[in-house]
Design a protein that fits this description.
The chain is an all-alpha fold. Helices cover 71% and strands 0% of the residues.
Length: 70
């Protein structure tokens, strides 16, 4: 139950705005947990946000793709 609204709201609150790499990594981890638990619909917005953050920070698309594999 890690990905309860309280956990997700910490991402939405801007708590990690000063460290976008950490925010993207944590979003990816929580999304993976959700997917592993069959909650694909709940994971999708987290994956999208993580991708947005990583795209802003990476211009190398192959590196971006590798970072999202886990």
């Amino acid at each position: 139950k890690l990905a309860k609204k309280g956990t997700i709201s910490k991402f939405q609150s801007g708590r990690f705005k000063d460290d976008p790499e950490i925010e993207a990594e944590l979003l990816s981890i929580v999304a993976q947990i959700l997917r592993n638990n069959g909650r694909v619909n709940a994971a999708e917005p987290l994956v999208v946000r993580a991708l947005e953050i990583k795209r802003k920070r990476n211009t190398d698309e192959s590196k971006l793709a590798r970072s999202m594999e886990h």
